[in-house]
Every structure is written in C-alpha cells, then in structure tokens.
C-alpha cells in the first residue's frame, strides 16, 4: 500500500501525563490498538510515576513492552513510543499528518504549559502542533478542585481550539463497575474523533440497574 492510499490509516497521537487516572490513557491505547489504529504514544515522566503508584506498573523511560504486556496486547501492536525529549520525533512536525491528539489524563501542569505555548517536552510540542495545524486536540483534565489559574488556563486552551474536558464519568449509563466508568470517559473521547465504539451505553439505549444495592431495591418492588 502506498503512503497516499486512502486505506492507509493516519496515526493517532496519544499523550498520557501524570494526573491520577493513567488507566484512562492506558485503556484508550488498548482500545485503539485493538482496532488496529496506529498510535504515536508520548508519556510524561510523571505519568510513569503514576503508573507505578496506581498500578504497580513499572515502565522504563523508553519502555513499551511493559505496557503492552499489562494491556495483554501483542509485542507487534501498531504503537510507536517516543522519547519524551525527542523534538526530532515525527509528531514534532506539522508536516507529519495525524488524526489529532488526545491527552488523557492531562495534568494541570501540562494544561498550564499548553495554555501558555510552552514546549518543554514532546507532549507539549505534539499538542502545540495540533493546535497550529488546526487538528483536533482533546485534553482530559483530572484535578479537584480547580484553582483560578487552572480555570483561566482551560479557557485559554479552549479559545486556542482545544476541546477541554474533565475525567468526569456520568451515571446515566448505569455503571456497574469501575471499568464501566473508565470506558464511559474513554468512549466519550473516542466519540470526539468519530471512532465508532460501544464502550458505554448511550442515552436512551437499554439501561441495566445501577450498582448492586439499587438492583436489590428494584427487585424488592416486584
Ligand atoms: C500519584 C500521583 C497522582 C497525581 N495526581 C494528579 C492529578 O490528579 N492531577 C494533576 O494535575 N496532577 C497530579 N499529580 C501531580 C503531577 O504528576 C505533577 O504536577 C507533574 O509535574 C505533572 O507533570 P506532567 O504534566 O509532565 O505529567 C499527581 C502525582 C502523583 C505522583
């Protein structure tokens, strides 16, 4: 297949930064690779730290095998993991075409850098490229509560063209597990890029009882 073939899938850029909830980014990666969507992956140093804290997942600086193993994906999955400081990486240039980028979770540190045009690492640079090329950039922030500076940074980033969202799973899809909540957030990010997915039940789709206690309450009524 030639580079210009319409069948050739453009890569998707995925950034995972050091906010709580790295599982969102990992699940996104797992989903994209499961549909054979090529991914260009950039992990911040803090993301590696959070992976260790939240999942006992120890990933060396340029490691990808550990992540693929954790996600039960084959070693030859179509993912390219870039060194965080490699400004010569493909995703550092606007001439390298991509579908756009999601950063999930996005720390308030990365939010601040993006909102102020800083490019101190490849996550920042790849995101700045998406903004200047008018490609879609979705950031999924995780913090609580928000300070005034962070709120202003969110407005600035939104004005610059990014889609600013929070890792705030809903309940209307009647989640039964933490996985359901993770998939709700990941599914809504996939929606932004028009990836067909059925990771969560959409509004007005069949609902199942919410959590065990409500299920019991419902059955007691009958
Ligand atoms: C276990 C753990 C959880 C963290 N959770 C958050 C968080 O939810 N949101 C956030 O903005 N920062 C969080 N941080 C702090 C960031 O990792 C820190 O600000 C870091 O500088 C972010 O760098 P990065 O944006 O390059 O990943 C957490 C750090 C650790 C170790």
Descriptive account of the structure:
With 222 residues, this protein is α/β, with parallel strands linked by helices. It has one domain (12-168): Flavin prenyltransferase-like (Rossmann fold), CATH 3.40.50. The chain contains eight helices and six strands, in the order βαβααββααβαβαα. It has a six-stranded parallel sheet, with helices on both faces. The longest helix is centred in the C-terminal third of the chain and has 15 residues, at 178-192. The chain starts with 11 loop residues before the first strand and ends with a helix. The relative contact order is 0.14. The model has no long low-confidence stretch (mean pLDDT 92). Bound molecules: flavin mononucleotide (FMN). The site of flavin mononucleotide has 16 residues, from helix 2 and helix 4.
Secondary structure: number of strands: 6
**CATH architecture identity:** 3-Layer(aba) Sandwich
Number of domains: 1
CATH homologous superfamily caption: Flavin prenyltransferase-like
Regarding CATH, which class? Alpha Beta
Rg for CA atoms: 18 Å
Going by helix content, strand content and strand pairing, the class is: alpha/beta
Q: What is the H/E string?
A: EHEHHEEHHEHEHH
Mean pLDDT: 92
Compile the SSE list and pairings.
Elements: E1 12-16, H1 22-34, E2 39-43, H2 45-55, H3 65-70, E3 79-82, E4 101-106, H4 108-115, H5 122-132, E5 137-141, H6 148-159, E6 163-166, H7 178-192, H8 211-221
Parallel strand pairs: 1-2, 1-4, 2-3, 4-5, 5-6
Helix pairs in contact: 1-7, 4-6
Flavin mononucleotide binds next to α2 and α4.
């Amino acid at each position: 297949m030639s580079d210009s073939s319409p069948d050739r899938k453009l890569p998707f850029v995925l950034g995972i930064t050091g906010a709580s909830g790295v599982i969102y980014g990992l699940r996104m990666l797992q989903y994209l690779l499961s549909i054979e969507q090529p991914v260009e992956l950039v992990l911040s140093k803090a993301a590696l730290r959070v992976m260790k804290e939240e999942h006992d997942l120890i990933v060396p600086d340029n490691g990808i095998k550990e992540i693929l193993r954790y996600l039960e994906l084959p070693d030859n999955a179509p993912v390219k993991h870039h060194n965080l400081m490699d400004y010569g990486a493909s995703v550092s240039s606007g001439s390298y075409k991509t579908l756009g980028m999601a950063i999930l979770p996005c720390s308030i540190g990365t939010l601040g850098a993006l909102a102020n045009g800083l490019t101190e690492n490849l996550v920042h640079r790849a995101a700045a490229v998406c903004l200047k090329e008018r490609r879609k950039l979705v950031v999924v922030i995780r913090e609580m509560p928000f300070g005034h500076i962070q709120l202003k940074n969110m407005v600035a980033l939104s004005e610059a063209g990014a889609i600013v969202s929070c890792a705030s799973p809903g309940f209307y899809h009647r989640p039964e597990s933490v996985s359901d909540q993770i998939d709700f957030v990941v599914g809504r990010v996939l929606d932004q890029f028009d990836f067909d997915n059925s990771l969560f039940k959409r509004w007005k789709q069949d609902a199942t009882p919410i959590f065990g206690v409500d299920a019991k309450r419902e059955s007691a009524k009958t």
